[in-house]
Amino acid sequence: MKKGDILEGVIERVDYPNRGVVRSGDTEFIVKNGIPGQKIRFAVSRKRSGKCEGRLLDVLEKSPLERREPQCGIFPSCGGCMYQTMSYEDQLSMKEEQIKRLLLPFMEECGGDVSDIWEGIFAGPSEFEYRNKMEFSFGDAYKDGPLTLGLHKKGSSYDVLTAYNCRLVPPDFVRILNTVHQYFLDRNIPYYHKMQHIGYLRHLLLREGTKTGEILVHIVTTSQMHLDLRPLADRLCGMQLDGKIVGVLHIINDSLSDVVQSDRTIILRGQDWFSEELLGLRFRVSSFSFFQPNSGAAEVLYSKVREYIGTAENQVVYDLYSGTGTIAQLAAANAKEVIGVEIVEEAVEAARRNAQMNHIDNCRFLCGDVLKILDEVETKPDLIILDPPRDGIHPKALPKILSYGVRRIIYISCKATSLARDLPSFLQAGYHIEKACCVDQFCQTPHVETVCLLIHS
Prior knowledge:
Elements: E1 6-15, E2 19-24, E3 27-31, E4 39-48, E5 51-61, H1 88-109, H2 114-117, E6 118-123, E7 133-140, E8 147-152, E9 160-162, H3 171-186, E10 201-208, E11 214-221, H4 230-237, E12 244-252, E13 264-270, E14 273-278, E15 281-286, H5 295-309, E16 316-320, H6 326-332, E17 337-342, H7 345-357, E18 363-367, H8 370-373, E19 383-386, H9 397-403, E20 408-413, H10 416-428, E21 431-440, E22 449-456
Parallel strand pairs: 3-5, 6-21, 11-12, 16-17, 16-19, 17-18, 19-20
Antiparallel strand pairs: 1-2, 1-4, 2-3, 4-5, 7-8, 7-10, 8-9, 10-11, 12-13, 14-15, 20-22, 21-22
Helix pairs in contact: 1-10
């Protein structure tokens, strides 16, 4: 057996995140983008050091779990979501089993009955049309094809499929996408080619306050053309929508990396922020400030976090990786003081404004890397809330966090494998997992949010 060989097999299970386990003879392969029970054809892509991986080529037979028709017109070619043919109940069961399997060794190490620790999975209120933020890419679906605007084809870094009826986003996003796409298609405006670094159109970034209906539109381009985008902004603002566009922005980005960032921002119409409401609090969110991408499920998540916080009366709470200060402000109701630390300056400024807007005066937000800022804060914490990025806590910051020896730590993870990597350090430092659960913020996709309450013994 060698690289490039074509094999067949049945996906026995899917481990988090999106790692299908397939056996061929005595060899176990990891093949992404599958569903348990599917019979697939795959190509051997890597075989070394005891690790074998394959690339999915075809689904030969459907899984018994695939009991419904997909709602999206470009499924399954699109890489945006992959579980539409499964019932939502089966999706939840599969995700819960994945996370529980990943965390089981740590829960067992803590002693006691695992069923008392593990609280299961909590669903978001909406299975579809739930995303309040989406980055769409300009490109083409095949070499030298017509302009497309949407999401990358599954397994491709270059081919882009027009997401003309994407079901992950609200209908307003689809209407805006189709209008923007047709506008540039009619004018034969070129997209930015990542390899040659030539072209103009890069991304369409849409953000919305689910509760408020306020929409922010960002058209991201290079500086290689000088095109007046105000007519497009006028057309967008004149559309009949369920919500309301409060701002249209032109983001100029000449970075070589394929990320949405701003070298310069031009406000074409309106303002550069929108507002959202969560659990009775109002938040002002700017273009690049982090905010949970599923507002309905975020309320489920934060309600569970608030439950884990419990009473924090007369206690100092650290909210590390605090973003726009959502968790910090929820914790403030029961705390003596909450100190939020966030590296994105724009998010820190938004957090300060949000606290002022919500008349919360026992929160303060510090801008900087957690690793460095902790050495500068003299006030010591009684409780720590961690909500790090996907890669988890910086290895050098973790010992500093553990050195405080606080009784309770709440770890919120958007990538459970990063949590699993960090947990041994907590257990070695004398913590045990008191409660754990996951919240499905990303229906139809492999992703899930995990929360652990850690108690110092």
